Amino acid sequence: MKELLGGKGANLAEMTNLGLPVPPGFTITAEACKVFLATGSVPPELADEIDHHVDALQQKMGKKLGQADDPLLVSVRSGAAVSMPGMMETVLNVGLNDDSVNGLAHQSGNARFAWDAYRRLIQMFGKTVLGMEGDVFEDAIEAAKQAKGTKNDLDLDAEDLQELVRIFKAAVKEHTGREFPQDPREQMDLAIEAVFGSWNSERAILYRRQERIATDLGTAVNICSMVFGNLGMDSGTGVAFTRDPSSGQSGVYGDYLQNAQGEDVVAGIRNTVPLADLEQIDKSSYDELMAIMAKLESHYRDLCDIEFTVERGKLWMLQTRVGKRTAGAAFRIATSLIDEGVIDTDEALRRVKGAQLAQLMFPRFDSDAAKDLVSKAIGASPGAASGKVVFTSAAAVEAADKGEKVILVRRETNPDDLHGMIAAQGILTSRGGKTSHAAVVARGMGKTCVCGAEELDVDVAGRKIKVNGTTISEGDVISIDGTTGEVFLGEVPVVPSPVVQYFEGSLAADAGDELVASVDRLIRHADEIRRLGVRTNADTADDAARARRFGAEGIGLCRTEHMFLGERREAVERLILADDDGEREAALAELEPLQRGDFLELLSAMDGLPVTIRLIDPPLHEFLPSMEDLAVKVALAEERGEEPGRDKLLLTAVQRLHEQNPMLGLRGVRLGLVVPGLFAMQVRAIASAAAELRAEGKDPRPEIMIPLVGAVQELQLVRDEVDQVLAEVDRATDGAGGADGVEWKTPIGTMIELPRAAVIADQIAEAADFFSFGTNDLTQTTWGFSRDDVESAFFSRYLEKGIFAVSPFESIDRDGVGSLVRTGVEKGRAAKPDLKLGICGEHGGDPDSIHFFHEVGLDYVSCSPFRIPVARLEAGRAALA
């Protein structure tokens, strides 16, 4: 009943039902909060319900709120359905006033305790309910301690605390214009409303956004009779864990603070002692706590986080919840509970997440090392990297060839920087976000990347960076943290990930590393039960080999445009500049053997597994120098009286090809229809490479994918050409050591990356053997976003305002883009039941998106090599869901 009672309320009720010592109380459900948030006031019937439950509580406790001689005091605490520790409000000691404080002093025999409880109430009420600054109260406490000549709160006696109460009450009147309320029921009602209102506090909103918690859940409110850990040294308060939340090891973990209330432990006003010390302080309470912890872990079948109070030797349980833990602890605890017979392997798999596995896979900086932080931006691709600063890809390659580690620093990257990105240890850009070119490519390669470091003034020509008064020159060493987005001066030591060593095959699962053994055990189980296949996005043989080691079951996307960069650019330029068929055919003839060599390596690396090869997709002008650079070169040459020659030809071609919005222009299937022979050259290279490998006894399995199809006629026209080329290669290799006369079929399919394609998927399916959803472009074209522009322009505001819970380029927009995917699946399969369906956009490696793709019935996901283990794990978890 967590959605109704909140996590805290549900667990208090659960502990009560277990017979554990829980202070009596009641819970106001989250439904009341939802009314308050919608209308600005509590439900009209709530007052009567609270009266009824307060009466019952008073009868049970044998005392009343505000009773002068023996007051009932209560706590008013928040409790959301999903744990949001410290994000919302709590008020303790509700019910004290100028009269009842004296009764509390008499009943407890401890005047200091009573006045301390009263000052705590006014302090918490002032901050939480009345919106006062906390410094008003803290400054007064510090002044009192200075006057006493002490730094310890416990040295303030009853008279000191009574004076603090007077000062606090005066501050309330001064800052709010009203007296501190003396009516206990008014205190309670105002505290309840404050807890409701704290659901939409700035910190709560930020936390929900970070943790992707729904905004409409609201919070319950728990009214509990107070128990006091600040009655003397025979009292205290503490927190405990049934296992170590950092490592997952069993043992006694937690903290205890004598003569203190719960907020003292959290605030750190005094040093706590280890929980194990409670055995010497109060063995009876310690033994009872150990028994209760064992009972709770057995009941919840998981690590439990517990808050407790000892009141004059009596143990009270104030809260329990399934405890948060580190990624490593999550895997260790899950497998330990299997071995202990507490849970089965399915349940263990449910309890670990792909995001946790991702955290374990990347190297990280040594937390104990000294660091000199110079900037913090967007952590775009996790990891930790250090190296010398370089500003060009050529410099990165040159340095790497010498064995030097470098960080490639750019304002932003483009496809031409690929070789530099490969050579670098990490990439740092002053522009872009998590889905910029740098980020996407870096993640695909497992490279550390920090993007959008706007504080950096990157002077590429001057080979230097200026940031906050510091100048960093080429050759200086920096370190970047792709998880936090932090940038440090100098080299920071890193700690390698044994989990990656395991996936790479250099560390055996039984090598004695407990974490690796836990990961191996759960990911093997995920592989046994998952329905979704897991492929990789890979363009090179090295990437393919790495992906295969990581468990890839084929390639779901090979981007052939990456094969036209570097030294091959001149041949591409000749193709674009060709004036007649002869020049164009000569350029294509030059490119074909190069492409064939690429496919030989790729298909060989993935021997026996499917390799989906996307024919060239981006606009041709991306393979030419920028129009601005060429214009400057031509103008300078003409000014000097020189002949611009090739530069002028290139400028003319760039101007001819220039488009206002090239992502919606001449690209994808349109290139194949407009540039004769381009697709045919690529298909011939694929088919001949496959034939050669078959002749060697290998098992190449290429699949040809046509990009950006929006009409079945486009796909059919290209398919006719592709089928013809395949037939020609087949005939040419028959009986010549090629296919040995055995006809082999190459599947031909398309990317569904336009809304129209999804809507008419039944028509397109008639001409396709498979679909692969290109959700990067599908998101762009559905939202009308240019991925390269909008993230830095306004995404942060959209996240702040709650329009996005997360960027739609990071996790699939289920309602919009996801609806189109579902439509494409349903219509495609209706027309062709055996149609193979996959996803090759960035979402293919996103844990939440993988669950959606399982739900809609895709056959496989495809993602970058380093996200394959995450996808394997999440595909298994999706099958259990």
Short synopsis of the structure:
The chain has 881 residues and is of the alpha/beta class.
* End-to-end CA span: 20 Å
User: Low-confidence parts lasting 5 or more residues at pLDDT below 50?
Assistant: 735-742
Oligomeric composition of the shown chains:
single chain
Evaluate the radius of gyration.
33 Å
According to DSSP, the number of beta strands is: 30
Mean pLDDT: 89
Q: Name the structural class.
A: alpha/beta
Give helix % range: 40-55%
The neighbouring-strand order within the major sheet is 11-21-20-13-14-15-16-12
3D architecture notes:
This protein is α/β, with parallel strands linked by helices and 881 residues long. It has 35 helices and 30 strands. It has an eight-stranded mixed β-sheet with strand order 11-21-20-13-14-15-16-12. The chain has an eight-stranded parallel β-barrel with strand order 23-24-25-26-27-28-29-30, surrounded by six helices. Helix 17 links the parallel strand 14 (406-410) and strand 15 (426-429). Helix 4 packs across helix 5, helix 5 (111-128) packs parallel to helix 7 (158-176) and helix 24 (627-639) runs antiparallel to helix 25. The longest helix is centred in the last third of the chain and has 25 residues, at 581-605. It is elongated. The chain starts with a helix and ends with a helix. The model is unreliable at 735-742 (pLDDT under 50).
